[in-house]
Design brief:
Number of strands of chain B: 2
Number of domains of chain A: 2
CATH class of the largest domain in chain A: Mainly Alpha
CATH architecture of chain B: Orthogonal Bundle
Radius of gyration of chain A: 23 Å
Strand content of chain B: under 5%
Oligomer: heterodimer
Number of strands of chain A: 2
Distance between the termini of chain A: 49 Å
Number of domains of chain B: 1
Number of helices of chain B: 11
Order of helices and strands of chain A: HHEEHHHHHHHHHH
Number of helices of chain A: 12
Shape of chain A: globular
Largest interface: A-B, 87 and 83 residues
CATH architecture of the largest domain in chain A: Orthogonal Bundle
CATH superfamily of the largest domain in chain A: MetI-like
CATH topology of the largest domain in chain A: MetI-like fold
Radius of gyration of chain B: 23 Å
Helix content of chain A: over 70%
CATH topology of chain B: MetI-like fold
Chain lengths: 294, 282
């Protein structure tokens, strides 16, 4: 009887630890909403998300809270990083899974783990002292730019894209590859026409996840994008500075009060929702793969 | 034969391209690491490691930041590991496939996806203000716990699930209760995997300046209790670089931070190598 009670207590304690993660997520939601919802209601969700002007400390007139330029800023650097990191990452993954000899696989795998381990602030710092002057001297503009932000984010996204795509490629059944080779296709033709299409959903999931991570990344981006809360002009000018949502929170939270602080929490809500959607989408894509015959 | 290009040609070209991309990735990593080390190694010496900062870090050392970072890691470890391993045991050993379990797993996935700056905001609103912990080691460490927890749950769950079923059945057949089986038989076998996961989780969390800037404060004084504010190394690097205080000091601090992360990762690799592939984990 006593033993049974003890077992029950232990199970309850373990259950409570298991429930901690979801509790924290709920607490995060509650506190973001508690702090951010009042200003969202006051300004209006549509006006807040699509407003073009961010002027929280107005010297004359009403302060304005519009974060559309920052939502676009986040999207600009995230997509820029994908354009740079996906081709390289995918090529590395194919290399790892298909043609790397054991020693090359071993060293590249460990190099990737090291790259993941570099704290984002260190990458941002290297970007600040090397990349920003480089962009200024060779491409023009002030150096702090979408381009610099995209490159730093691409370095951060690269290891993740490589390792998830590598897994996806390696989980393609061997028989597919053997059948293609047996039909006389070359190795590259097999990779291109058989292996990559079969690994497609895993790779797409990796790319979506990388996009979510890039949107959510703070320190590395903050130090190189220039943090000007405007859309680039013209809209395709990647040498213009932008201010992603994460930078906005990081820069202004230290001195914001009242409505201004609430508006930053509301920016956090928008960020949370966007990144959450990316995570959800990548899980959906992976699930759809599970549904089909493998 | 009217084929002008043999099929072997694109094959060879593609392989050259793939090798080149692998070399490029390696080169990027080596370049970043090499650059920091070359620029900063002259700064790193004993007075730098054991001295106190002078002129907001432009001169002097970084000992308070190192101590602060280690204290934060200690708080994170001691909160995230018991909870994370407990959660992993529940998910791997007790949970049935029910709505509750799926909700729990979903929660872990969600938490893993929350951006670090949002965790920072939450830590500020909940830990610093609502619970009244102030800018402190405690607030910072607990906020980092939220970053490390999902990682620890996942790796521990994997390690526990990798213990073969027959081991459990043997123990249960001898009349042991479920908890006896888990605590005396399953967990000891899974320990290397759990420790590796915990170490790597801490290694990932500790670099998160975005979490620490709103929770741990930015004091450069030596902390004397859990409720004292500290400036963790990543945030110190950010301030040195972005406020233009001192680039050489920022390089030096980056080397120290990288060395800490590297030591953590090597520790994890060593533990894995020491215990070997006990039960055929990949």
């Amino acid at each position: 009887m006593l033993a049974k009670t003890r077992e029950k207590i232990i199970e309850t304690v373990l259950f409570l630890s298991a429930a901690t993660a979801i509790t924290i997520v709920l607490l995060i939601l509650i506190f973001l909403l508690k702090e951010g919802l009042p200003i969202l209601m006051k300004v209006g969700v549509i006006d807040f998300c699509l407003g073009m002007t961010w002027n929280p400390i107005a010297i004359a007139g009403e302060p304005e809270y519009g974060i559309f330029p920052m939502i676009m800023g986040s999207i600009y650097v995230a997509i820029g990083s994908l354009i740079l990191a996906v081709p390289l990452g995918l090529a590395c993954a194919v290399f790892l899974a298909e043609i790397a000899p054991a020693w090359a696989r071993f060293s590249l795998k460990h190099a990737i783990e090291l790259l993941v381990g570099i704290p984002s602030v260190v990458l941002g710092f290297v970007g600040l002292v090397l990349l920003v002057p480089f962009v200024r001297d060779h491409f023009g503009g002030c150096g702090f730019s979408i381009l610099a932000g995209s490159i730093v984010l691409a370095v951060m996204a690269l290891p993740r894209i490589i390792s998830v795509s590598d897994d996806a490629i390696r989980s393609v059944p061997r028989a597919y590859k053997e059948a293609s080779l047996a039909l006389g296709a070359t190795h590259w033709y097999t990779i291109k026409k058989v292996i990559l299409p079969s690994a497609r959903s895993g790779i797409i999931a990796a790319v979506i996840l990388a996009m979510g991570n890039s949107i959510g990344e703070t320190m590395a981006v903050l130090m190189v994008v220039g943090s000007v809360a405007c859309l680039p002009s013209p809209l395709y000018d990647v040498l213009d500075p932008v201010r992603p949502m994460t930078s906005n929170i990081a820069i202004e939270m230290s001195y914001a009060t009242g409505d201004h602080a609430q508006a930053l929490f509301a920016t956090g809500i928008v960020l949370f929702v966007m990144v959450g959607m990316m995570t959800w989408l990548s899980h959906k894509v992976l699930k759809s793969k599970m549904g089909t015959a493998r | 034969m009217n084929r002008l290009i043999s099929p072997a040609t694109p094959d060879r070209a593609a392989k050259v391209g793939l090798w080149a991309s692998a070399v490029l990735s390696m080169a990027i990593l080596l370049f970043i690491l090499g650059y920091i080390v070359i620029e900063g190694i002259s700064v790193v010496n004993i007075p730098f490691l054991l001295g106190s900062p002078v002129l907001s870090g432009a001169k002097g050392g970084i000992l308070p930041a190192i101590v602060g970072t280690i204290c934060l890691m200690a708080v994170t470890l001691s909160s995230a590991v018991p909870i994370g391993v407990g959660a992993a045991i529940y998910l791997a050993e007790y949970a049935s496939d029910s709505v509750v379990t799926r909700t729990i797993t979903f929660g872990v996935e969600c938490l893993a996806g929350v951006p670090s700056i949002v965790i920072g905001l939450f830590g500020y609103a909940f830990l610093v203000i609502y619970l009244g912990f102030g800018f402190s080691i405690l607030s910072g460490g607990l906020a980092l716990m939220a970053m490390a927890l999902p990682w620890i749950v996942r790796t521990s769950e994997e390690a526990i699930k990798a213990v073969p079923l027959t081991v459990r059945e043997g123990s249960l057949a001898l009349g042991a209760t479920k908890w006896q089986t888990v605590s005396r038989v399953v967990l000891p076998s899974a320990i290397p995997g759990i420790v590796t996961g915990a170490i790597l989780g801490i290694g990932k969390a500790i670099g998160e300046a975005a979490v620490l800037m709103f929770t741990a404060g930015s004091s450069l004084l030596m902390p004397s209790s859990l409720f004292d504010p500290v400036r963790a190394l990543p945030y110190h690097i950010y301030i040195l670089a972005s406020e233009g205080i001192s680039n050489p000091m920022a390089y030096g601090s980056s080397i120290v931070l990288l060395a800490m992360v590297l030591a953590i990762n090597l520790g994890a690799i060593a533990i894995q190598a020491h215990y070997g592939r006990h039960y055929g984990r990949n």
